[in-house]
Predict the 3D structure of the following.
Amino acid sequence: MAKPRRMTDSQGSGYWALVGWLLLMFATTGHRAEAQVLGVQASYAKDAAGLLWGEGIDTQFGVGVRVEQSLASLSLPGPFASARALGSFDYFFPNCEAMRGGATSCSYWELNANVATQVGSGPLSPYVGAGLSFAGSSFTTPAFDPTGPTSATTSNSLIETGVNLLGGVRYVLGAMSLYTEARIEVGGGEQFVLSSGVLFGR
């Protein structure tokens, strides 16, 4: 998770733009022949800097929901013919004490809107993609009192924007699909996220 920063007006506008994009995407394609596919997932997240340089302290687990929509009806060209819109929401369980200021309580979630295209064909199908990420967090830290110990606290919340780069593999198993996906966040939560889940449909 990135260091806490206050949400700017542009970030707030971007958050609602992402929500609108998700609603518009699934509303305009939902009446087509391709059905939306719903699923659940579990994720492991690691601070991206810690992954690369061994400096991260913020490791966390999360659970979430996922929705996928085929974009075949849009007749996209070439390698994008098998593209799918991927939307997900994950709620994580961070180590509050590891946050700057030693938070006494905290929460962290991510909302993602991605587009991925399949590489190859068959029951075991790799895919790559990219998209947008919004990371929301809130935390309560002890207030500083120069006169001595105090029970007062300070609460803050923020939403950060970022870009997702992802890759994964899906395995069709009857009427369900299993998947494992790795995602790196450039900006936003600044995390490396590994997710595995099941989609109730193909």
